[in-house]
């Protein structure tokens, strides 16, 4: 019996009136994961498109693969470099030693293997904890389990430090799924990005585990500031003295969360999203424009006490989570603006806010997470005023 025939045979037990009717969301989740959804419109008008929810989510996950692979390599690289100074510790190091892979940071295989041992537990916990609550809400509400959680789980994992305790990983994704999405009705009805909601919850609930110099490289005794932290303290001009060139930051061989360090790999993902028309280029242009304009203005104004005023836009682009947020969060279609003019404004607002938070707020030298959530809140209002302006303009034209 083929797999398609198997699903067709058991489907009557899960549809309305079947023995396992209340578990239909579980059946639909598995069936639609393997096969393209068969739901079609039955009444006019008919909109024909090769894009559906499953394809959109699949493309976004595919776009993260270059970033993911480099994240594994860089996490292992930073860890193995620290081990060379402080020595190995923990169960992951024991596995590496048992397998005979070693801790040579000049060996790409050793770096990838070590990075994978940090990524996999976090990703598995994210899938299990968040997936359970997705299924619970789907069963209670009698609606399908959307593929959107696959994207949320991947993005959430990629914006976490490798040292994040697994119990915090579970708490964060549960909060993001329930408070960021399900309380508003589920996929397509949320106005905040669920992955960022979960990350923000962890940042404010457990700041010692989400910020500081000791969290980015998970080796006991190691402490190293990120490029943004160094710039906030002494200016971006001293980054080369600390072993961080602009090219290092662009390629991604610096400290940071799993998927946020390599602007190069992130841009590869952006190219794929633009080619497949999943990402709207207006959001990218708006966010880049807002960031470049405001950072350049601060460069002109200058400051004798705040070295971040002097950081040029091309450094803002490659440090912290700006590039990752720009490509995978700003372009998220549900929580972004939906009008063309609104997309420019929405993107520019986020670009402006990230620089303002990074530079003006001395306690938080990152900013992209909060800037995007701030933009999410104002996206409906932006679209409202854009639509009202269009209505007034057309009314005057035909008056």
Describe the structure in brief:
The protein has about 400 residues and is mainly alpha-helical. The chain has helices at about 5-10, 25-35, 55-85, 90-100, 110-140, 150-160, 165-180, 195-205, 205-210, 225-235, 245-250, 265-275, 280-300, 315-320, 320-330, 340-360, 370-395.
The structural class is mainly alpha
| Morphology call | globular
- Residue share in β-strands: under 5%
Level of helix content? 55-70%
What is the N-to-C succession of helices and strands?
HHHHHHHHHHHHHHHHH
Low-confidence stretches: none
Tally of separate helices: 17
Integer count of domains = 2
Q: Write down the Rg.
A: 23 Å
Through-space gap between termini: 68 Å
Average pLDDT value?
Answer: 86
* Major sheet: none
Number of strands: 0
Transmembrane segments: 56-77, 89-105, 117-140, 155-179, 191-209, 257-276, 283-301, 313-331, 343-361, 367-387
InterPro entries: NqrB, NqrB/RnfD
Subcellular location: Cell membrane
Membrane topology: Multi-pass membrane protein
Note down, in words, how this protein is organized:
The chain is an all-alpha fold and 399 residues long. It has 2 domains: 53-210, no CATH class; 236-397, no CATH class. Helices cover 63% and strands 0% of the residues. It contains 17 helices and no strands. It has helices at residues 3-10, 24-34, 53-86, 90-99, 108-141, 148-158, 166-180, 194-205, 207-210, 227-234, 246-251, 263-275, 281-301, 313-318, 322-329, 340-360, 368-397. The longest helix has 34 residues, at 53-86. It is found in: Cell membrane. Pfam families: NQR2_RnfD_RnfE (PF03116). Composed of six subunits; NqrA, NqrB, NqrC, NqrD, NqrE and NqrF. Belongs to the NqrB/RnfD family. One of its GO terms (biological process) is sodium ion transport.
